[in-house]
Design a protein that fits this description.
EC 2.7.13.3; histidine kinase; single chain; 7 strands; about 65% helix; 11 helices; Heat Shock Protein 90; elongated; HATPase_dom; transmembrane; alpha+beta; HATPase_C_sf
């Protein structure tokens, strides 16, 4: 404790003997009577010992309380301006730590919720494949459709993890959107055949963007268009200064439209038909925002849905 006290107050402790030596040299050089020096030294030394003793006692009590963890009593003794500034800094860091902890816990809860929804979605195609295997009624079209759904759900989860951890690797380049859409439709041809849907693609659009992430966003929209279309319906994709995807599906309730981009929100139709996960459109909106694109959705019940994507 004495060593710590000397370390903290070493400047003041060393100042006194330095001053004593300076005065002694002054008396000696000017040949002043040393009697006055020794009397003054005795008096000043007594005062210094009392002051140092009080300072040590206060330092000892403060250190003892700090070491014992009794912060409430010790903080009242930290009343110097530098101590107050340090306490304010600690308070700010504590508040920041609490905020970061709340954010981390919120992300953990969101991830747990997403994984739970994802696991329920994965069960549907897995159960369908298992049923086909048990009954022996396995067709290539049905099997390809279920495998495509599994790949789609898996891609959703992996890309959600990338977005939530902000590890998305955007690479902007000139993209022929028509070619991207055509290839995407080819990937989903099994679903189109299964529901007997017709597809029409009109126009061209060249855009400087990230091809991989734009494709993922469009895949979410096209998957929803197929999923909620009636058998024998049609889907139209128009390209000009943007992308317009129209379907003739069951549509979205007007009161659900303002919330469709919220994470975990499925809406009435998604809940009723048990097809929505609640994070496909959320990820689509997040990706398009980072690509500096605007998405707008208009829909009417039983009259289909129109999704428009354009530059800001």
């Amino acid at each position: 404790m004495i060593r710590a006290f000397f370390k903290e107050f070493r400047l003041w402790l060393l100042t006194f003997p330095a001053l004593v030596l300076a005065f002694l040299a002054t008396f000696y050089l000017y040949r002043l009577p040393l009697t006055y020096f020794w009397v003054s030294l005795a008096f000043v030394s007594l005062i210094a010992v009392i002051c140092y003793g009080l300072a040590f006692w206060q330092f000892y009590r403060k250190m003892a309380q700090l070491q014992s963890g009794q912060l409430e009593g010790s903080l009242s003794r930290l009343d110097r301006p530098s101590d107050r500034a340090y306490q304010n800094l600690l308070a700010q860091q504590e508040q920041q730590y609490k905020q970061e902890l709340l954010t981390y816990k919120s992300k953990e809860e969101d991830l747990a919720s997403v994984v739970q929804m994802w696991s329920h979605q994965m069960k549907v195609p897995l159960a369908a494949i298992d049923l086909m295997n048990q009954t022996g009624q396995v067709t290539k079209t049905d099997l390809d459709s279920q495998l495509l759904s599994l790949n789609h759900y898996l891609a959703n989860l992996l890309n959600y993890l990338k977005l939530s951890k902000q590890t998305s690797d955007f690479r902007f380049e000139e993209v022929a959107v028509r070619d991207l859409v055509v290839n995407l439709v080819k990937d989903y041809r099994v679903h189109f055949l299964q529901k007997e849907l017709s597809i029409q693609i009109d126009g061209e659009w060249a855009l400087k963007t990230d091809k991989k992430w734009l494709r993922f966003a469009l895949a979410q929209i096209l998957d929803n268009a197929i999923k909620y279309s009636q058998k024998g319906g049609s889907i139209t994709i128009s390209l000009s200064d943007g992308i317009i995807i129209r379907d003739q599906g069951i549509g979205i309730l007007a009161e659900d439209l303002p919330r469709i981009f919220e994470q975990g929100f499925t809406g009435y139709n998604g809940h009723e038909h048990q097809k929505a996960s609640g994070f496909g459109l959320y990820m689509t909106k997040s990706i398009l925002d980072q690509l500096e694109l605007i998405i707008d959705i208009k829909s009417q019940i039983d009259n289909g849905t129109q999704v428009t994507i354009r530059k800001k």
